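USER: Fancy drafting a protein?

ASSISTANT:
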Amino acid sequence: MDLTVSRPVKILALILVIAGVGGVASLSMMGKSSPSSSGPQLSVEQIRARAHGTVVGKKTTAPAKAKAVAPRTHTATKAKTAPAPVAPANGLPALLNEALRAHRIVVVSVFDPQSQTDAISYAEARAGAGDVSQAGFLGVSVLDDSVAGPLTAALPGGGLLPVPGVLIYRRPGKLIERVDGFVDRDSIAQLALASLTAAPFTPPAPPAPVVAAAPVVAPPVTTTP
């Protein structure tokens, strides 16, 4: 009798053995885990606490209060306004005072820009001032009221500006010479040089008023009979 087991039978027997071992292991694991899966029993107080949404036996921490932040207030800043220009104490235009700070003598040429003759007078006055080292120059148009206006108001004795004409000032702002009409270059240089030590300009005295003479009354004529 041949007791040799065929190969398919061996494979089937091996499968049955593995299945049996796996089944026994799974049964033993289920038996161990079932009693421990149940949680601890809750007391009556814990059940009531859960029903009301509170926790018994544990300390609860209050949520941290957020720090109150004061609202930022934006203060409107006032726009800085430029200070109003201060008028010079001597009443002269600012351009003339600036020139006097740089030069001891300033030759001022007054002209009408629409006149060709005044243009020649302007050029001669500028050249004559350039011949004197301590003299400066300033041209003033009679149409520029911002300069001609204060210059007219500061004239000693009042009156109008000479057009064309030349005014010579000495620091700190004294009028030393006034010339009405055209003046050549050499004469301007001599006047500017003399103005370094000359006395201030004195306006001429106004003419005396003319008093009308009393009418001459002829004596009455008498006739004799």
About this structure: The beta strands are 105-111, 135-141, 165-170, 174-180. DSSP finds six helices and four strands in the chain.
